[in-house]
Amino acid sequence: MHLKTTLPELEEWKKNDKFIMEEILNEKTFNQVEMKQINEVRMNLKVNTLANISSSDGKRILHVACKAKPIESCSGNRYKWPRTT
Question: Taking the model in full, what pTM does it have?
Answer without folding.
Answer: 0.70
